[in-house]
Amino acid sequence: MDLNKAQPVVGKSVKRIDSLDKVTGEAIFPGDLSKPGMLHLKILFAGRPHARILNIETQEALALPGVVGVFTSLDVPHNEYGLAIADQPVLCQDVVRFEGDQVAVIAAESEEAAAQGRDLVRVTYEDLPIISDPCRAMEPGCLQIHPDRPGNILKYIPIRKGNVEQGFAQADVIVESTFYLPMQEHAYLQPEAGLAYMDGDIVVVETGGQWAHHDRRQIAHALGLPDEKVRVIYRYIGGSFGGREDISVQIILALAAYKTGRPAKIIWSREESIRGHCKRHQTFIHARWGATREGKIIVASVKAVMDAGAYAYTSTMVLGHVAYTSLGVYEIPNVQVDAYAIYTNNIPGGAFRGFGSPQGIFCAELQMEKISARLGIDPVEIRMRNLLHRDSLLAVGTPLPFELHLERQLEECARAAGWTQDAAGWKKPAAGTTRHAERKYGIGLAIGFKNIGFSFGFPEVSSIIIELHGEQEVKQVLVRYSGAEVGQGTHTAIAQMAAQALGLPIDIIHLITTDTANTLDAGCASASRLTLMAGNAILGAAGEVMKLWKNEERPAVASYTYHAPLTSDFDPETGKGVPNFTYSSVAQAVEVEVDTQSGQVEVLRVITVTDVGKAINPLGIEGQVEGSVAQGLGYAFMEEFITHEGQTLTPNLSTYLPPTALDMPGQMQTIILELDEPCGPWGAKGVGESVILATAPAAVTAVQQATGQWIDRLPMTPPRVLRAISSQPSKTTA
Hints:
Blueprint: H1 19-24, E1 39-45, E2 51-57, H2 59-62, E3 67-71, E4 95-96, E5 102-108, H3 111-120, E6 122-127, H4 134-137, E7 153-161, H5 164-170, E8 173-181, E9 193-199, E10 202-207, H6 212-223, E11 230-234, H7 250-260, E12 264-267, H8 270-276, E13 283-291, E14 297-309, H9 315-325, E15 334-343, H10 357-375, H11 379-384, H12 406-416, E16 420-422, E17 425-427, E18 439-451, E19 461-470, E20 474-481, H13 490-502, E21 509-513, H14 530-550, E22 556-563, E23 583-595, E24 601-611, H15 618-638, E25 643-644, E26 647-648, E27 667-673, H16 692-707, H17 718-726
Parallel strand pairs: 1-12, 10-11, 14-15, 20-21, 24-27
Antiparallel strand pairs: 1-5, 2-4, 2-6, 3-5, 7-15, 8-13, 9-10, 9-12, 13-14, 16-17, 18-23, 19-20, 19-22, 23-24, 25-26
């Protein structure tokens, strides 16, 4: 096959390369794995939010027929791990800090024996005070959950710009609000599972996750092994949404296989999964914004308190996105932001689609809506007067790296939703008619942005290997790439981009993926980064490998590492910095009908305008948009993760209710803009997360338009909506 002769595939809705395996059942997920002679594992979870461990008795469990081993902290050479900060024990030795802390691992010949053995491990606890309120955790004299963190403060970020006192003195209208954003469960289809075994002196862990090479580093560190003595392989992954970014079963699988020399398998139950893995951070935000009577936002003060839970996970990074997105996509000359991530005895907060930006954008968009209402200026018109432009200074004191085309997105969304424009400005559509007198119509609109790629000075690189095989013609292309396919369609986009870069048909492109023994580090399947990062790495490797092929090197093999533009962390006093090297943005409208007798909300239509730079696979983008809308509507209306004093009261999917197909809107309209990303391959950038940013604030505004009441606390369940309808008219503070 001659190079550069095939038909272009970038921009085409090609069939997903994993679709046939998944629909026929041929796909092997971690829970499907087995090996002869394997052991079955069960974990003894703490089951209590905060306690000191006085004693662990394992003799009775070890005496049970079928139990091969019981492992505790004494069996872990370096009993610590963590994605950002190694503050979590693999197996707790002295203290448990949340109900999902792991205390012991039981290995047995059968799953039943392992479960029985787990119930025979006797742990003596001394219960400690429970700190479940992050605001209370900050108070002077409160018990420290981690002894080296005064005030239980994991991270504090201040952002300062201009003069806030002067700004409020000049404001004609001031709006003050307090928002509560809840925890959200990832509810991915497959709970945590995996299989580990020895291959000579190498520990092999087959599982699912988001960053195989970082899993390997954490496993190797805990076991006291060099990295090359650990191999991590990802099988098909049943969803993630950020929830698999942090370690769950990987280390204990490796520990059991390493200690026993036998294969070891585990599958968490749904309840274990819900209690044991991280959640979207619950966040409390108090915002005070001021504007001129002409609708120019001139000052904003925000205090955000984010519940990190018992351990750091990704909270230090999530907090950064809460901090700067709480000001939205608007240029505000006078700013004060104080953002805190606070340790509590709750389930740790971690990565979840949007990574802190949904909380921040919720604050910004509702403040903008409330100011719009107070001033009597159309919501689209007031946004247009305040949007960031290419030469605008962000609150962190630096400009956007590239133009975001916010005006174009907002205009496209507004027109699709029925807004009109004349010489006087933008005008909202008239209220739609409803089927029954007790049903009221509302429409809301929101706009937001988030980072693409790693932020705050973290080195952002991605590596790939391309091999061309054949004699006179290229018969097969092997692409070795470790970025995780968690359902988002990345591997299909990789195949498309490789075919396009090489000028070869996609049907001869074969991926070898997510195996640390056979791939280089591509980074994490997070931050909507894989398409941009991998595409640039592909372009670099394709150029190198084609030179080798033309020089008659057979097979031709080339690797390439793409280095993204540099970012920087916040200045510790002013917050000044370059947090991100590029952004993705969205505008969205939500139409609802509210039953004023029951509080039930029916979502009629969701319009999404997303700028993808260049659509690598348009149908795949539509799927990402619709999935984001589903999770955003769940966050807005249904998903209430209830805890009390650190204990989960909604530990299964019959009490915690994510949306189903029956809860989706009657119409979902996706408008894809291709406005060229300067640092993206073929001008492309990621789209996996940005859509979820606008859904909840647009939905809240739609409900307010229908009922006349602002609901500043999610989710908007029917009882909460009904209480709002029955309450006195909302007031904002001037």
